[in-house]
Design a protein that fits this description.
This protein has about 120 residues and is mostly beta strands. It is about 0% helix and about 45% strand. The chain has no helices and ten strands. The strands form two sheets. A six-stranded mixed β-sheet has the order 2-10-9-4-5-6, with no helix packed on it. The protein has a four-stranded antiparallel β-sheet with strand order 1-3-8-7, with no helix packed on it. Strand 4 and strand 5 form a beta hairpin. It is globular.
Length: about 120
Amino acid sequence: QVQLVESGGGLVQPGGSLRLSCAASESIFSLGTMGWYRQAPGKQRELAASINTLDRTNYADSVKGRFTISRDNAKNTVYLQMNSLKPEDTAVYYCKPVAPGWLYYWGQGTRVTVSS
């Protein structure tokens, strides 16, 4: 079973930046398209950003232009650079492959709180 460990969350003021990391225990290239999901308090989880093996990216409208997803296959790590953070970005962020076989997998996530 592949292990995915998210890190990098924390408390940040509105307008600030954070970079999240997702370290995998094996090759992320073999995992295919990777995604960063998030769940805000009282809301359903949503796919915030994804990146495929050709480094093509997709973003939710709510984060487009502010977040950047990237992957480093050599380090088996996926990143999410988050800029111009807003209070509504407050959520627990999770990473995992965007694939049916991973539907019920959720790691421990990393909490992001945007507040003054």
